[in-house]
From TrEMBL:
Gene3D superfamilies: HUPs, Ribosomal Protein L25, Chain P. Residues 460-534 form the tRNA synthetases class I (E and Q) anti-codon binding domain. Its EC number is 6.1.1.18. Its main location: cytoplasm. Pfam families: tRNA-synt_1c, tRNA-synt_1c_C, tRNA-synt_1c_C2. This is Glutamine--tRNA ligase. ATP binds at residues 35-37, 230, 270-272. The keyword Cytoplasm applies. One of its GO terms (molecular function) is ligase activity. HAMAP family: Gln_tRNA_synth. Residues 28-338 form the Glutamyl/glutaminyl-tRNA synthetase class Ib catalytic domain.
Length: 561
């Protein structure tokens, strides 16, 4: 076996075996088939990367097909959001398709099945139909309408289509096998009546096809070669094939369904129903809330398409479901942002620092490297003045030898600037330090080459000049759930594990180079983390989201537990 063959995932092995068995490579076609009833999440991203990745690997077309068969839950808003997400991830589909494009053809095929005695109209309630399905160990019982004559079935089905009946009054079922060990084969429903406008066909139809009837036939119409689904659809494969058996032309390509395992992500939920619950209960601000595992939420938070694609490549494709730690996703965004994000200085918990021997009313502009990981990123100028902000936690009056930041009588270097020494501090009436008075060594400027500049001090602090600082809103986001598997507890609701500290809003102070930052721009706030400009920003007010901290702070918490 060659090195290339060993690196293939099992889906690619299936395709390679088909090609070796005589499959024409030109006939390969894949599809990504979302239902437009919500926003795509990180689990969908893996499916997108799989299908479009196969398209790139085999130079084959990939369709974007919307399985829009349920007008009660589907909206045009979701269609547009899905298209934006796929494009943002860096993929372009060959053909934009909709299951609703095939309603006419699906109806004609259903009529043909009725004429062949392979489908019938059932007039029972949904509860009666469910009761007659049986159990996994007991066969079902046939509907009293199972042997309706063809003419009556055709008349009723046409009446269903024409809106002559109420919702739930009739359904169309395939006549297969009520004693099958696969309960999906026990006369599955093909059509139900819905008097609701569709986002594309409006009120043209009063009946809508079920997923199992629609999916395989849509694949066949589009001549999709490999229909890739998550493992939950494995029991559906038998029905997928049965429907195709009834109508395929031997001269045309026959699609094949194959399944891969869903990848669940820790500290989150990916059920659309549960995500919608978070939105409707105002736990989050919307589908694109930066704490949501939706692609739009990750984008707004500052994740890059590359980091998500790299994450999908790393977890790969498997046959068994498992939970992937969210820290792996965070690792990939850190790794990518470390390479591309400009370094800037910001202070989020300010403490005033006064350089008493720096001339009042003057300023000095210092050179600062934009990104040590990118030689072409260049440098910028940052202002230095008598009054600065540093982080409160970077100063202590007294500290042991392991504290390498600023303390009374101690020295640190200011990033890109000078070595300073804390001489004294001022406190408020509650004993809190509100100002630190320091002196600086004028000959210790970073990069100046002087003997004083080469002197070693153990701590380096970020800072901003108070007269030049941009005041801004900083949104600190963290994991939405405190538990690794919030929906994995039988005795508790997933809402019980919402992390109360997943969102905090603070006032921050930024160096002036950020005044022209645009929505979506990403930065590393030195020593604090990676941040990006939120879409709520405008020309007068910048708002930054924390994408991720510099280090995995949750790892230590998990170890303590």
């Amino acid at each position: 076996m060659s090195e290339e063959e060993r690196s293939l995932n099992f889906i690619e092995h299936i395709i390679e075996d088909d090609l070796k068995a005589g499959y024409d490579k030109k006939s390969l076609r894949f599809r990504f088939p979302p239902e437009p009833n919500g926003y795509l999440h990180i689990g969908h991203a893996s499916s997108i990367c799989l299908n479009f990745g196969l398209g790139l690997r085999y130079d084959s077309p990939v369709n974007l097909r919307f399985d829009d068969t349920n007008p009660a839950k589907e909206e045009k808003e979701y269609v547009e959001a899905i298209k934006a997400d796929v494009e943002w991830l860096g993929y372009q589909w060959d053909t934009e398709c909709y299951a609703s494009d095939y309603f006419g053809q699906l109806y004609e095929w259903a009529v043909a099945l009725i004429k062949q005695g392979k489908a019938y109209v059932d007039s029972q309630s949904s509860e009666e139909i469910a009761d007659q399905k049986g159990t996994p160990t007991e066969p079902g019982t046939g509907s009293p309408y199972r042997n309706r004559d063809v003419a009556e079935n055709l008349r009723l089905f046409e009446g269903m289509k024409n809106g002559e009946f109420k919702e739930g009054e009739h359904v169309l079922r395939a006549k297969i096998d009520m004693s099958s060990s696969n309960m999906l084969m026990r006369d599955p429903i093909m059509y139900r009546i819905l008097h609701k406008p569709h986002h594309r066909t409006n009120t043209d139809w009063c009946i809508y096809p079920m997923y199992d009837w629609t999916h395989g036939e849509s694949d066949y119409i589009e001549q999709v070669s490999h229909s890739l689904c998550t493992l939950e659809f494995l029991p559906h494969r038998e029905l997928y094939d049965w429907f195709l058996d009834q109508l395929v032309d031997s001269k045309k390509l026959r699609p094949k369904q194959r399944e891969f395992a869903r990848r669940n992500l820790s500290h989150t939920v990916v059920s659309k129903r549960k995500l919608l619950q978070l939105v409707e209960n105002d736990v989050v601000s919307g589908w694109d809330d930066p704490r949501m595992p939706t692609i739009s939420g990750l984008r707004r938070r500052g994740y890059t398409p590359e980091s998500i694609r790299n994450f999908a490549d790393t977890i790969g494709i498997a046959k068994r479901e498992n939970v992937v730690d969210v820290s792996l996703l965070e690792f990939h965004v850190r790794e990518h942002l470390n390479r591309i994000a400009p370094r800037v200085m910001a202070v989020l918990n300010p403490l005033k620092l006064v350089i008493t021997n720096f001339p009042e009313g003057t300023e000095e502009w210092l050179d600062a490297e934009n990104n040590p990981e990118d030689a072409e990123a260049g440098s910028r100028q940052v202002p230095f003045s008598r009054e600065l902000y540093i982080e409160k936690e970077d100063f202590r009056e007294e500290a042991n030898r392991k504290f390498f930041r600023l303390k009374l009588g101690g020295e640190v270097r200011l990033k890109n600037g000078y070595i300073i020494k804390a001489e004294s501090c001022t406190k408020d009436e509650n004993g809190n330090v509100v100002e630190v008075q320091c002196t600086y060594d004028p000959k210790s400027k970073s990069g100046s080459g002087t003997e004083e500049s080469l002197r070693k001090v153990k701590g380096t602090l970020h800072w901003v000049s108070i007269p030049h600082a941009i005041e801004t809103e900083i949104r600190l986001y963290d994991r939405l759930f405190s538990d690794a598997t919030p929906d994995g507890h039988k005795d508790k609701d997933f809402m019980d594990f919402v992390n109360p500290d997943s969102f905090k809003k603070v006032k921050g102070y930024l160096e002036p180079s950020l005044k022209d930052a645009k929505i979506g721009d990403r930065f590393q706030f030195q020593r604090l983390g990676y941040f990006n400009v939120d879409s709520d920003s405008d020309s007068e007010n910048l708002i930054f989201n924390r994408t991720v901290t510099l280090r995995d702070t949750w790892a230590k918490l998990e170890q303590k537990k």
